[in-house]
Amino acid sequence: MMARSGYTSIAVDFYDFNIVFPREGRAEVDVTALAKTITSAGEAAQEIHELVFSLEKVEDDWLFTAIEAVEVLER
After folding, report:
1. 4-70: which CATH topology?
2. Which residues pair with 20 in a beta bridge?
3. Which end of the chain is more exposed for a tag (fewer CB within 10 A), N or C?
4. What backbone torsions phi and psi does residue 5 show, to the nearest 5 degrees?
5. Full-prediction pTM beyond 0.85?
6. Looking at the predicted structure, is the pLDDT value of residue 38 above 70?
């Protein structure tokens, strides 16, 4: 909550989903996340992150078991 208090707006969009089912009841999702923020001072920023989600099916729901940020090279 402390980190969020520095922003007046936070929006996250997800792109380029790649979903793999390594075995029944498990899923691995690679995705690109674009975070758009506006600070309390009115400054806008954008960040792009590559993420990997691990999910497991429990009864009829898919639950996140891990979330990993993938380091990408910058120029």
Report:
1. Nuclear Transport Factor 2; Chain: A, (3.10.450)
2. 28
3. C
4. -65, -15
5. no
6. yes
